[in-house]
Amino acid sequence: MPVYNLTIEDYSPVLQYSTQWRTGGSAGNGDVDLIRYSSSSFTVTNTQGTSMSFVYYGFGIQIYGAKRFNHGDYRVDVDNGTTYSCSSTGGTGLPPSNDTFQQSLFDYSTPITESWHSITITNEENKYLDIDFITLQSTIGNENEELITTNLDDGDPAFTYFPPSSWVTNPPNQSDYFGASGHMTSDVNAYMEFLFEVRDAVTLFGPVHPDGASYFAVLDGVAAQSYTTNKTTPQSKVIMYQAFHLGPGQHNLTIGYVPSPLDISQNQPFFAIDYATVYTTVSIQNATNSKGRSNNTGEGRTCVVFTCSHPQPERNTSLTGPANPD
Hints:
Elements: E1 3-9, E2 16-17, E3 22-23, E4 43-45, E5 51-58, E6 60-67, E7 73-78, E8 82-87, E9 100-107, E10 115-123, E11 129-131, E12 133-139, E13 148-153, E14 159-162, E15 183-185, E16 191-197, E17 201-208, E18 214-219, E19 222-228, E20 235-243, E21 250-257, E22 271-273, E23 275-280, H1 282-289, E24 303-307
């Protein structure tokens, strides 16, 4: 069956960082090796006991970072049970640099079954540990099927914005948006609803920004989760929200602006919606057309991927964490 591969950059809100993490190269002494990281970005700590956590649905996950001379030991806890001891020490620190980048810090794909999992990586020394990006895998559909991808722009009828007067359609850096269009708001009372038919999953994307605002997400009326799009460095197409294993039928995702003391900005914080990408297969479409139902025989999963533009959130899946400090 088709495998859905998802790459999550270090600055995504779905990754929950404890305190004492910062954006790499932002401490006043830029890192000459910054361009050797994915998207020229990494999140780093040198404080013992600091951690990054992530909750996901799938069968495989990999964590990537650098192995450098001033890095140390760390541990990885999976599903609050098994603990793995590891090290990211590498190189000599002498020119020419033989530090290595975009290295696998942890790979948990062989013994794992497709279900909900939690993973936490913890720094074990007062040495450096950085996160570059994470990849994860989940299956969609039946054997011998192809993945079908459909983009839904922010103006699609599936999106409804409340109140309409609180949203504008000319956000900053509009050319960076899908279709050069987006919906943006700075109103604390504003929210958006997205109605979709899906077999299994929904993922929200959007950029991070120093003027990014915080927001809440509610899926099918279940407990609100809080995130922030406030980040040190602007980035685009960042994962803002995700939910998996939803089941067949219609679902409602509500995203709304919410003020937060974490939004440190000299300007008015704002939040924007860009577009959604729906991943499906023929078997899922056929099941949806049959009264929107699919049986539970591995008929596949649909992933709905949202993309929001401009500020990006710092999100939790069932976790809530502050934005990374500089």
